[in-house]
Amino acid sequence: MAARRRGTPLHQRTAHAADRAGGDEVTREPDPEVNRAADGGRKRFFAEHARRLRREYRQNADPVTESTHRRGACTETHDGRGHVVHRFGDRDTLLSGRGRAVATQVADLALKAYDRPLFTPDEQVDKVLGEVARSGVDVTLGCFHQHVAVGTDSACTTDERLVCTVEVSAETEEGGVCSEVVPWPTALDAAEGGELVARAADTVLARRALPRATDLPEGRDLVLLAGRAGSFFHELVGHPMEADVVASATSYLTTRAGRHVAPEWLTVVDGAAGGAGHNYRAVVDDEGMPSRDTLLIEGGVVREPMTDAATAALLGVRATGNGRRLDYRHPAIPRMTHTRALVADGAVTRTPDGDWIAPLDLQLLTMNIATGEFVFRSYTPLHHREDGSVVRLPPVDLHGQGPRVLAGLEPYDAESKGYGRATKGCGKLGQFPLVVTFANAGVLLPAGLVDVREARDG
Length: 458
What we know:
- This protein is of the alpha+beta class.
- It contains 7 helices and 22 strands.
- One of its GO terms (biological process) is proteolysis.
């Protein structure tokens, strides 16, 4: 039975089966035909060998590991009008025998991907992270590692995606949590990674030791520090600029296409190619489309939406390489990869008026994608006083309107920093958790731009 994507006219059908198909000689380069948006009748192929790993280190306790392993493949047939039929199979169901759905060369390439090794923490990693945990913090190593063969049923390319991070956290006396996240350098010696994590632990413990104020100050500027506001722009700009939402005409940014919604110094871009650190990186997306930077907001102006093959065909635009799937059992849909909010070079940054608040550990509570109305919670707001002292505040909720907030932002720090957790991710349409990462420069929300309230429910 066809299932309608939320708020869109697009349909997808899923079956645990395989079609037979022949093909031409395989190539390891992305297929030029993959760049075509109108793809009626063309079958796409995706195979993966992947692991999601979470390993927790606590004081005087052995590491506890959660791990999910995936080996499988799927095909998707597009009719060129936004309809997609999705079929999947475990291991080599679609790759061998009478049920083979792709050319022999493509199947061979996919089977080789199944044999490629995945990152596994060794004894040295356990040793250094265990030592950090004994300093009085909780340490969580997260890893998403994936080998894919992806393209059409006759030609595909291979790709490797690896995101590995370490979260360091410590509970406060009143039951809150202070946390920091750093990338785990899988290519380096574990001792070097341990130094990064140890510095994060020092930051967390120093933050927890700050005195705690009981009263929430009013009329203060808010500063979203560099590398600490990824989820803010992910929700406020990213989801409203995903093409299935745009096609439904329910995004508050849809009617503002080509218009200024933010100051000229602000650009928001999504793309998985290049970069380092926390970034999710991919040469091609989960449909074989080359990954490229997509300008969501450029110089304050609403630009192009992020598309998969189906929505690109439906909207008649060039695909952006944002077709992503939770795993081979799920259809590809338009989703973010690595979303960056940037302050233009030469922009005049502003210092807050008087003392100010830095709302750390932001998480979305609610958002109306049609109006842009939102509520974010900061679990660790810090009050920076004029005399240079810093105190922790109770958790706060930020209530605001997307159009008004985007228009009222001011630049605070032009340096951009990355952020992301391999243990968490985006849960669009129930596909959770898809790994996404962020980067942002520092931005300032002048006093009164959002309504700051103490979180009464914890």
